[in-house]
Amino acid sequence: MDTHSKAGHLTTLTVNLTKREEKQIRTVPFHVEPNLEAIRISMKVAASRSPSTIDLGLRDPRGTRGWSGGARSQIVIREETATPGYLPGSLEAGDWAVLLGVYEVPAEGASVELEIEQVLPLPRWIGGDLHSHTVHSDGAFTVDEAANRAQSAGLAFLALTDHNTYSQNLGYPRDTRVLFVPGMELTTYSGHVNLLGVPQPVDDFRVASQADLTHHLKIAQERGALISVNHPFETECSSCAWRWDWDPGPNMDWDAVEVWNGPWREANVLALAWWQSELESGRRRVAIGGSDTHSLENPHIRHGWPTTWVYANRCRRDAILRAIRQGRVFLSYAPSGPTIDLSCGAYRMGDVVPTAETESVTVVAKRLQPDDEIRIVTDRGITQRTLVGLEEVAVDKRIQRHDARFCRVEIWRQFPDVQRRLLAAMSNPLYFGETWGTP
Ligand SMILES: [Zn+2]
What we know:
Helix content: 10-25%
Low-confidence stretches: none
Mean pLDDT: 94
Number of domains: 2
Largest sheet: 15 strands, mixed
Structural class: mainly beta
Distance between the termini: 58 Å
Bound molecules: zinc ion
Number of strands: 28
């Protein structure tokens, strides 16, 4: 039976295996469509009086793609991750096959139900953490432990941004659903920069002058790294605040700035105010977040606190990085925190809405709590505050543009454990006007 939907193509097959096939491998062919995000296969052996043991494997058009014997009944394959025992890589269209090893079946045979799901890419919000440390620098977690913690927090991706090294990027664990984004925190005594997306972004980390910094950043940029200034206004560490030039060098600019680092505190208040003034002056800067988790020492520093959400059509490194560069990003204080979507007609945060567009701006916020405060911020500051009602867990509101040059959303929440109203989520801006943009 075949079912087609916007999300993909589901085939359900019943395969009857006979006693005579025991100790042989049955090939069950299926056809793979082009442009998939994932292939999911699950196998269920129908209950009978005597048990069966059926092994599972997969073949792609080139050869066997993996084998899990009797150890698994489910497989997921993507381009950059796959169930252990199977190879990630191209999901090329063509003739694939499920391999069923008939290890043991009763005299009357066995009936196996196979579900083959071909998952199409579908634009959606994907959450992860872009800043974390492991034993490869001064963190307490091994890479496996970091992956486990990120996975149980519900994160889809994690960047391991150890200080001035990339040994953490050479060989990620495979028995996790978390997608690793290669990272390195270029750490100088006058500020820190995250280089994301390439395993070895620089050849040397030593920075003694502005020229050294520009030189390294140029190399990272040429290799395709996304460059973000981290915790630029850090107050609790003498070498962490940004003291280099805000101009990274000729023909270069920052791809993003870590406006929200770890728990909401003074350094983030200053970063948010700076970001707002940058936006007001006409610079379109992408705000991202990072937990900067090193260990379990501080109970308020955990993977995904805050979470950076990107609007991408697949959970793949290039799609995640592209979404960040486009500003299709919002941040929430935790993976379970509020979500924000901001649009105007067909345009979404990060986009520039042409002046001729007549639609009003739509804000959709979810996972709200009573008394959350939604702030609409433009180049004139906070233009609207709304308190969420007792029953509301989601709002869908339309606001007029008021000739603003940009519009963004913040959600503030009273957190009982610290008895303070803190930022719970923030969006990147939706910009207005064709020509505006260069300061
Ligand atoms: Zn740092």
